[in-house]
Amino acid sequence: MKKLDLFVTGVGGQGNILASDLIGETALAAGYDVKKTDTLGMAQRNGSVISHVRIGTRVYSPLIKRGEVEILLAFEKLEAARWSDYLCPGAVAIVNNHALPPLAVNLGVERYPEDEEVRGILRQRTERVYFVDGMARVTDLGNPRTLNIFMLGCLSHFAPFETDAWKDSICRRLPERLHQVNTRAFDLGREEIQNVHV
Amino acid sequence: MSIPAGHVAAAICLLSCLCYNGLKMKLLLSGNEALAWGAYHAGILVATAYPGTPSTEILETIAGFDDVYAEWSTNEKVAMEVALGACYTGVRSVVSMKHVGLNVAADPFMAASITGVSGGLVVVCADDPGSHSSQSEQDNRHYARLAKVPVLEPSDSQEAYDMMSAAFDLSEQFDTPVVVRTTTRISHSKSVVDLHRSRPAPAGEVSFPRNVTKYVMLPVNARIRHPLVEERLVRLREYVETCPLNRVEEGERGLGVVTSGVAYQYAREVFPNASFLKLGVTHPLPAGMIREFAARVDRMVVIEELDPFLEEGIRAMGVQVEGKSFIPLVGELSTEVVEEGAVKAGLVPKAAALPEVAEVSGLPKRPPLLCPGCPHTGMFFVLATMGQRLRAPGGEPRAARSSDMVITGDIGCYTLATYPPLNAMDTTACMGASIGQALGMEKAGIAGKVVAVIGDSTFLHSGITPLVDAVYNQGRITVVILDNGTTAMTGHQDHPGTGISAQGRETTRVVLEDLVRGLGINDVRVVNAFDMKGLRAAARSALASPELSVIIVRGACAVRVPRSGAPRAVDADRCNRCDVCLLLGCPAIQTAGGRVYIDASLCVGDNCTLCEQVCPQRAIAPQSASPGGESP
Questions:
Q1: Interchain proximity A28–B366, CB inside 8 Å
Q2: Fold exhibited by the domain B246-344
Q3: Superfamily of segment(s) B7-199+211-240
Q4: Using CB atoms, which residue from A33, A38, A124 is nearest to B3?
Q5: How confident is the model at residue A12 (pLDDT cuts 50, 70, 90)?
Q6: What per-residue confidence (pLDDT) applies to B387?
Q7: How far is CA B273 from the centre of its chain?
Q8: pTM for the full model?
Q9: What is the spatial distance between Cα B162 and Cα B164, in angstroms, rounded to a whole number?
Q10: What does the pLDDT look like over B363-378, one tens digit per residue?
């Protein structure tokens, strides 16, 4: 692999920053150069979060150019649509089928896009749009906070790193009592994407 | 506000990573973490800071090292003075702050330039191009020119780590404080770092050899020191000509790019074949090196973020150069922005652009909000009600006329009360400005009552002196101190009012009401942040008071308190859609299908109950007591 440019997006509090850290650390362990940067608004929680992760033999800019994102990993549907402009033609978009409506939507001032609209927006760049039921799977697993690791499991199908390498980075960053549930969430994500991605 | 790096835990986690990997392993570190490790491996014994995005994680990481004294100082001026005093005793010290922090610390910073140092003193300031989380995007490289001290600009985390060590050496070699200037994109980006140094063994006894002409800036001594500062700058100019932090990267001779900091990374992508002069030290400039580089290339351009600092410096040497004629003066750069400029300047051909995805601009935004259970909401709701300011987003004002009450504001999460529905802030300038501004409006003769609103950490940072001013000059303003027991916006750092030190130890707590009463203010009230009646009564009587009054609104930051009791729910039968609860601006209170409901996953339960207290219909109660009301 020469290079891989990824976006990880979601709403503050969903664990996206840890997820993008783990992508970077897994790539580093595989011998790549890595840069990653998070862009947050002023809000710590409930705001849009976007992480740029760049992997390659030599990475200069931490920011990815518009039209060059090869994989979009979105923890929330509206946020997936919001960053569609950055995708390259034919990019992979993995979208957690979950809505967190912003306040203006809740107050009835603005409208949350329908699923078909989100797909339509993403399809202006790529046909490779995969909706996954992350929230349902990790709720069944008994720990909704493992969503970020579930999403990494989905991503792992498209990234050139061994499953064990992913699990090593996950276990290195999390306390031991969380290892089992998170490696299970990772496996569930990997299974899910294999079912969705025909 | 900042990315909440795991405080002290960050450094500890990192230490365990190091043990796991062995010291040869490379790590993925943020610029701030790398700066902290660089300082640690340079042998610092003292580190000081006041939290400020994007600089906060530097001290948070250092605080995890047991063999360094690390403190949250009350403000950046104090932080600078503590670090300066420490370095006078021969130890290495580092002080870190955000760009505007150096405005606060400018006085001791300028003094440090004149007295010089003994042990190394490094001043890290983190600029915020793009104003991601700041009131301005000032370019702090100008401070280095003003103070006649060197400034170093790392371009990634490895350089951040390495430059710290270089900065301390430079500081001691030239008897000067050294500025390391980062930007948000350096401080908050992670890249690969080889922590190849190790911490030196501590050097014996710490002492302060008295040296009056160096350290006592009486005019007579200041006149002795000034020529030394000028001579130092001359020597620094010689030094930077051969300093390894400045380097030429050979490429094609058609185009020469002079650049520094993160702009180097963008320029490298846009001009892959050009020749580069990559400056690690951007003050003073290496004139000889620049002239030589200019002579070698056909066309020379400067790619830099914010002000034309390098460009003007080079032009002042009489060397022809371009830069801000095609690179924006304002905002953060990126590869795209640099490319756009380069196309404009005819340096690169225009690439075929992808069509825009048009619908994106119409998607609902996620503006920052006060959290569910925020202890600031109640007081703002009271002030907004009294000032007839409440207005739902996109809706009409609730009152026909507006009051002439003015609310001067300050810097913290609570600045978000500016937005609808609360609309409860009229000014925000800089840390601590609310109180002085309020007094100024009163003294100017404004008709209405003026209320200053300031957070606990900001009050301790720079609200005390203006309050003393208001006492002395017999102001009649009302000062509201929102005491949530933490520095919330930057990620929950302790401060003198919490009684916990930066390194997690118990310490003497500064009690705000004692402090305020001690200044001679009689009209002081302490109110529970979640008691609407108490808040209303306090606000009414303080606003009616003929003298200076202070209300301390006390309630813990919602993010730090575990939820308790059942979430609140709306009884649909009782609710008449007056929508008063929606005017709190609580993210948990939502509407769907023509009904108001409370998102049980967001509501903090018994800790707050503000909506229950403001509902005129008594339609809001704990969820179990109103089983029909939990969801639409």
A1: no
A2: Rossmann fold (3.40.50)
A3: Thiamin diphosphate (ThDP)-binding fold, Pyr/PP domains (3.40.50.970)
A4: A38
A5: confident
A6: 84
A7: 37
A8: 0.94
A9: 5
A10: 998 887 899 999 999 9
